[in-house]
Amino acid sequence: MVNDWLELTPDSIWLEIPADIQEISWAKSASFTDASIRQRFYINYLCQQVIFNYLQSGMPGVSLVKNQEDFWQLGVNGFTVKLGEKSVIFIASETLDIEAIEIPQEWVDIPQLIGDYYLAVQVNTAESHLRIWGYTTHKDIKEKGQYIKRNLNYSLPRNQLQSGSDSLDLWGECQLQAVKIEPEKMEEKLSLDRLTTLLDILANPQLIFPRKAVTFQEWAAVIVNSNWRKILITRRQKSPVKLTNWFTDNFPIDWQSILDFSSLSLVPAFKNTEIKRIKDLGVELLGNSLALMITIAKIEEVFSLQATVYPTGETSTLPTHLKLSILTETGQVFREVIATDNDEFIRYRFDAELGDKFFIEVALESARVTEYLQV
């Protein structure tokens, strides 16, 4: 089928979508309840994997930029591949009638995110192929593109793009041409109060287009900070677990009694006045079976809390360098505890007041699990 299309459109690069990549992409996106996020994640992840495998097979120095999926969850289409020191941004679309490339403003105007080149990709999952049909440069987008404020996009018509087949020469061009215009500086320094307000606004799950809800400068200041970005995504996707509900035996289904776990020898001793629940973190942290336990007790008007992480698999010790972090609602690190060799658990006890919201993050290398909690 790809060969048939290639004969009709030799000016494009056609790539097949392997069945296993399609299945993995769908599985990764299936957990999102919002249909638009689910589809955006699916198409971008699928496109990313196919194109990266294609580039990696024939070009040295190709790498993916980490945490691209954050942007898909916040309404920003596209992903970045590094060719040496140059950034190439791929913009995927399922549109059949191709008239222009539509590039989100984030990839054009935020200094930390802009690309040197932008490649337009048409994705057809029904027929299991994708097509790189054209490309342009940052310079051309800024000089020739039309900024569409209502969509926060830059648009460049098809007749202004180089053909997709010519993108095969990008590797050589990346070493020669200056194709980026220095962007205007965005030195939006957010106070803690303003950051708190912005996160409250943007975290509203009823807000369909968060990137349009505040000024672009403030939006940019939030999303370029990976910590704030993660916090925002977590807050948009789930409400905090209200720990005071535990005093009336009102527990979320995924926070279970410690009696449901067999590794009781690893659990530290507790006072009878403490309420303790445990959540199985599965194997999301690089294949390590782990659980997070929270205990809460009320002492007059203050709540005493403790977070503990311990292994639930065959091994009795935690992986070295596993990190337990307590974060404020704005993502500031309040406390970190890091596992060393032969640690059977790591924990941290702290006090909080009624209404306090915070995050507990368990991380190993680039993998992390975050829980959003409220006293």
Core attributes:
3 domains, seven-stranded mixed sheet, five-stranded mixed sheet, 10 helices, 19 strands, globular
Characterise this structure.
With 375 residues, the chain is an alpha+beta fold. It has ten helices and 19 strands. It has three domains: 1-172, PvuII Endonuclease, Chain A (3-Layer(aba) Sandwich); 189-237; 240-374, Immunoglobulin-like (Sandwich), CATH 2.60.40. The protein has helices at 2-8, 19-29, 35-56, 69-73, 106-109, 138-144, 170-174, 192-202, 216-223, 226-237, and strands spanning 13-16, 62-64, 79-83, 86-93, 100-104, 117-124, 129-137, 146-148, 153-157, 162-163, 241-242, 275-285, 288-299, 302-311, 323-328, 333-338, 346-352, 357-364, 367-374. It is globular, with a radius of gyration of 24 Å.
What is the compact description of this entry?
The protein is an alpha+beta fold and 375 residues long. The protein has helices at residues 2-8, 19-29, 35-56, 69-73, 106-109, 138-144, 170-174, 192-202, 216-223, 226-237, and strands at 13-16, 62-64, 79-83, 86-93, 100-104, 117-124, 129-137, 146-148, 153-157, 162-163, 241-242, 275-285, 288-299, 302-311, 323-328, 333-338, 346-352, 357-364, 367-374. A hairpin with a 4-residue loop joins strand 6 (117-124) and strand 7.
Please write out the topology:
Layout: H1 2-8, E1 13-16, H2 19-29, H3 35-56, E2 62-64, H4 69-73, E3 79-83, E4 86-93, E5 100-104, H5 106-109, E6 117-124, E7 129-137, H6 138-144, E8 146-148, E9 153-157, E10 162-163, H7 170-174, H8 192-202, H9 216-223, H10 226-237, E11 241-242, E12 275-285, E13 288-299, E14 302-311, E15 323-328, E16 333-338, E17 346-352, E18 357-364, E19 367-374
Parallel strand pairs: 4-6, 11-19
Antiparallel strand pairs: 1-7, 2-3, 3-4, 5-9, 6-7, 7-10, 8-9, 12-13, 13-14, 14-17, 15-16, 15-18, 18-19
Helix pairs in contact: 2-3
